Amino acid sequence: MAGENDNKSEKPTQRKLRKAHEKGQIARSRQVSSAGSLLAAVLLLMFFGQTILQTLEYEMKHLLALRVPSEITGSYLSNIAEGVGVQVAIVVLPLLLAISLFSVATNVMQGGLAFSTESLGFHFEKLSPKRGMGRIFSKNGLVELLKSLVLLGAIGFISYRVVRSHLALFPKLMLMDVRKIFHWTAVISYEVLIRVTVLLIVVALGDYLFQKYRFKDQLKMSKQEIKEEYKEVEGDPLTKGRIRRLQRQMARKRMMADVPTADVVITNPTHYSVALSYKVETMDAPRVVAKGVGFLALKIREVAQEHGIPLVENKPLAQTLYKTAEVGESIPSSLYKAVAEILAFVYRAKNALSR
Fold this sequence. Notes:
- This protein is mainly α.
- It folds into 2 domains: 2-115 and 125-231, no CATH class; 256-354, 3-Layer(aba) Sandwich (name from scop).
- The protein has 13 helices and 4 strands.
- A hairpin with a 4-residue loop joins strand 1 (264-267) and strand 2.
- The longest helix is centred in the middle third of the chain and has 41 residues, at 178-218.
């Protein structure tokens, strides 16, 4: 297995990346989602924190101002809990929903939407304790554990620094009322939250770049895999070559079958042969019915001789016709005069022989 991995030196093709995406395999960092959720919480608290606190304070005052009946029943406590729960939910649920949507958006930004039913299927091998322990104590698992420990340590250090900067405030809290204590607790917590958010954004950016690099590194292909993929997409080059050869052979057979319909074959004298046909009633200009070079030129000459087709040697005209006109096409207008002279000569020779 090590040898196979060592041979995977080529970047993954777009087809392999697309197939990985279809299977739900995308370069994603969990840190990005965490940072996105925390950033959403910070922004929402920045703009709506005061409103949320005022609402919760009002509900607390309302709850404390309630007159307690002489007999406390279960229905009474249930009604109180239900009323408070509804009011708190009205305030807190939109906040949680917005954080959830922000978390989903950060995941989509990393690699788009990817729905795969493969991960939903039952895989018996996932129940293997041995495989589970292997994942936990694998190189990747240990790296993730180390990252989590370092991140927790950094968050703890930030929290310690913030609390330490407000250390002189704590003795004064004993002399403050509940409202001021709650205010300063929120201020310190919010300061910790902002600094942790900045830290997570930096960590998430670095982790995403690392995950993207590792994802593409894991999908690297060997040269043999690229060849196999090319065969799947484009077809086997040997098979395609055989098909092209058969197509050329069939085209030559059709072309050779049209040589007897020619009026003249212009030669070079042996390297090039171009057979021309001109029917005044159906053609606007002479048309190439066959052409060839080398061995094919000789075959055209042989078929022409067998069927009594005149051969006219004209080196420059034969080469020009071969290079500028394809089989089944009319000759270029620049060659009309030269070809017309040859056809006129051929027709005069035929008329002389017929007398």
